[in-house]
Amino acid sequence: MDEEDEYNENNMTLLNMITLCGESTLYEGLRFAKDLILANLCLRIIIQYVPMPHNVRHSLSLIIGSFLLYFNIGSNFIWTIGLTIGAYVSIITVSVVTKKWRGFYVSVCVILFLILCEIFVLNPIMWQQIRGIQMVAAMKIISVAIELDRDLFKQMLNPIEFGGYVLCPANCILGPWISFHTYSHYLEVKFLCSRWIVIILKNLVMSMGFLLLSNCFVPGYIDESATKWLVAYRDAQAFRMSHYFVSSMSVVSMISAGFGLTNDCHSELLVTRPMIIELPRSLVQVVIYWNMPMHQWLKTYVFKTCQPYGQFISILTTYAVSSLLHGFNFQFSAVLLSIGTFSYVEYNFRYKVASALEVCCLANPCLKQCEHKYKKNSFLAVFVNTVFSLITAIHLAYLGVMFEASFSVQESGYSYYHITSKWENLNYFSHGLAAFMYVIYLMM
Amino acid sequence: MSGPPIMKWLCLFVLFLCMRCEANKPRRGRGSMWWGIAKAGEPNNLSPLSPSVLYMDPAVHATLRRKQRRLARENPGVLAAISKGASMAVAECQHQFKYRRWNCSTRNFLRGKNLFGKIVDRGCRETAFIYAITSAGVTHAVSRACAEGSIESCTCDYSHVDRSPHRARAAAAANVRVWKWGGCSDNIGFGFKFSREFVDTGERGKTLREKMNLHNNEAGRMHVQTEMRQECKCHGMSGSCTVKTCWMRLPTFRSVGDALKDSFDGASRVMMPNTEVEAPSQRNDAAPHRVPRRDRYRFQLRPHNPDHKTPGVKDLVYLESSPGFCEKNPRLGIPGTHGRACNDTSIGVDGCDLMCCGRGYRTETMFVVERCNCTFHWCCEVKCKLCRTEKVVNTCL
């Protein structure tokens, strides 16, 4: 009798979760999407039907973007506006002195501004709310400064162009980052097709699906009393679903502004690849496909800029910049540094294994013809790759469990203690595994 | 089930006729008679309770007051929820008091008799708990049924306008920020209001005993409401919190029961407040004769011991000390602890010394077949084996 009671209770919480959680989650998700889509449709329709000179278009983007920011984060939007104005002023000022180091100085200024904001000015809840927005703005600003150094602009951008680019409603809230030239191109281009609506709806449905998965279904499908690795996998997966939601929602906002469409009206925008991350080949692949525009940004503006100073320095700078952009906190530094070392070890280890066993099992799949004896469909290759996939899934659970937290923690930022307790609970397994693989790699 | 509409109307008409004749009879039963609904569905337990079955059941009708019947008629589907809530409350009460001298036993359901027996005639702690848990059960079950969409008249409140004060108060008590609401999970509001209408029928709040019942009913509802948790999750670029999504989650009824049991242990004994003298003078200006409905809940009970603090909304209150539950007492409907199982190693109330009130106990060894080695199968099934185990059973003499 008693057991039956327990059983019913379990069943009830599942039902509870679906009916109670699903409906309000969907409602709030759609409410958020509504503003985003309306603002961007507004931008696109005006551009499409009202002929306007160049600068007016940019100022339209600036104005709609500012309104959208205001409606989403309230008065905190002055921090983004402030960052934009400050960055523009400092680009002009630095331009007087030097034409070659603008990118470096502006990057330092922007990152310093973000760190100072976080430490001294803003309360943690507010910072967590605007962190993502500031990050996208910072990436845009730095990319403009570096492109100025590389002489990719005919003349210095005027404030309206700059403001329109940074505050563009299509990507000022959830990203993704796009370069100034892409932005400018999409703003000029005119198109009309019915597929457009279909693409928006498709992405909207997808993002709502991911939102439901993240909020309601994934947290419920493995019981709390299961082994800690299963629980960690579940929590990490809920976080990944949240990321897919954000990514597909950003695609929705881009597409509804008409950004990211080819001339024959197909979406050329790819932000993340859920399938590659959920069934990962390697950690390297996860890093690449997690947020493709961001990956590209890091590669183009940080890695390539630092390449003259040597491989090691450029890799280190890339990780430093990417964790500083996420804000000055131990959690991201720890996670990113771990990803960095894990993927480095994995990359080298798989290279050794591939050459020793002559199997196609490199971290990245061979493009066309691989020179190994056992091709990718051979049994040995499939087996080895499956083992590596499993290891990657474990790494992902280990790294992603960090982002599972009570709402108050999510809202106000993660502490040092939070991280160590989460990883201690899993006995620092992944770090141990990586170290073990590195030792074998050295011995091979 | 899905008969022609004319049948449905006929049923309603017959129901209406019944009600008319019932209404002509003199007032029967107390406000708490509706508890019987917990057992009403039992004989045909195999089929799920459908509203129409409950409508027809004369046993159900006997238990309900005129206003309660009206409420059930106006809110199709609610009767099944109430029945579920009541049986949930009985089960929870029996779980919470499994190892105490009073074990929340229920009588056979007979027309005109009270489900919990004559103990409710006394204003003691146990009675306070019964009122609170049953009221909580109805609130919980109706809220849930509403969220699941099985009550037609309960609609989701998307307007955010109707923000009743008790909700804000509950939010403040639970120390959660009042969130701008959307979505259907807000149905606790419906459950709360409905429970006030349904459960508190007949408790006019005139006598002290009625005030006690009202207070305890309200305490049960408040427990459900404050145990209700708001859950939120952040979404945004790389774990930031650009988008927040929140939803409410009803507590499990077990946690409500646990909280109420705590209140039972810390219940306060109250007496007639001396504000009773002032209260009518205040009311005199507005409504001289009738107590306004809302004011029914606006009273303050005074603790029996002036040194104790006044009872809060979530505290249980009682008027008189509990009778001894050791010996059979037909006048109070107490069966006594003869034949109850007890634990010979415990020194608590479940221990044989206290449970058997010093009469001693009998020890027997017997074989029981029970479920064991239960495993959870994904998803969502529990499979068990049957094991034969030896058990030592102590029963009070």
Automatic annotation (TrEMBL), chain A:
One of its GO terms (biological process) is Wnt signaling pathway. It holds the Pfam family MBOAT. GO terms for molecular function: palmitoleoyltransferase activity; Wnt-protein binding. The keyword Transferase applies. It is a multi-pass membrane protein. Its EC number is 2.3.1.250. It comes from the Eukaryota. It catalyses: [Wnt protein]-L-serine + (9Z)-hexadecenoyl-CoA = [Wnt protein]-O-(9Z)-hexadecenoyl-L-serine + CoA. The chain crosses the membrane at residues 77-97, 104-126, 162-184, 196-222, 243-261, 328-345, 378-398, 426-443. GO terms for cellular component: endoplasmic reticulum; membrane. Its main location: membrane. It is found in: Membrane. Keywords: Acyltransferase, Membrane, Transferase, Transmembrane, Transmembrane helix, Wnt signaling pathway. PANTHER family: PORCUPINE, PROTEIN-SERINE O-PALMITOLEOYLTRANSFERASE PORCUPINE. Belongs to the membrane-bound acyltransferase family. Porcupine subfamily. This is Protein-serine O-palmitoleoyltransferase porcupine. It comes from Bicyclus anynana (Squinting bush brown butterfly).
TrEMBL record, chain B:
CDD domains: Wnt_Wnt1 (cd19333). Its main location: secreted. GO terms for cellular component: extracellular space. It comes from the Eukaryota. InterPro entries: Wnt, Wnt_C, Wnt_CS. Keywords: Developmental protein, Disulfide bond, Extracellular matrix, Lipoprotein, Secreted, Signal, Wnt signaling pathway. The keyword Secreted applies. It is found in: Secreted, Extracellular space, Extracellular matrix. Pfam families: wnt (PF00110). The keyword NAD does not apply. Residues 1-23 form the signal peptide. GO terms for biological process: canonical Wnt signaling pathway; cell fate commitment; cell morphogenesis; developmental growth involved in morphogenesis; muscle organ development; neuron differentiation. GO terms for molecular function: cytokine activity; frizzled binding. Ligand for members of the frizzled family of seven transmembrane receptors. PANTHER family: PROTO-ONCOGENE WNT-1 (PTHR12027:SF91), WNT RELATED (PTHR12027). Belongs to the Wnt family. This is Protein Wnt. It comes from Bicyclus anynana (Squinting bush brown butterfly).
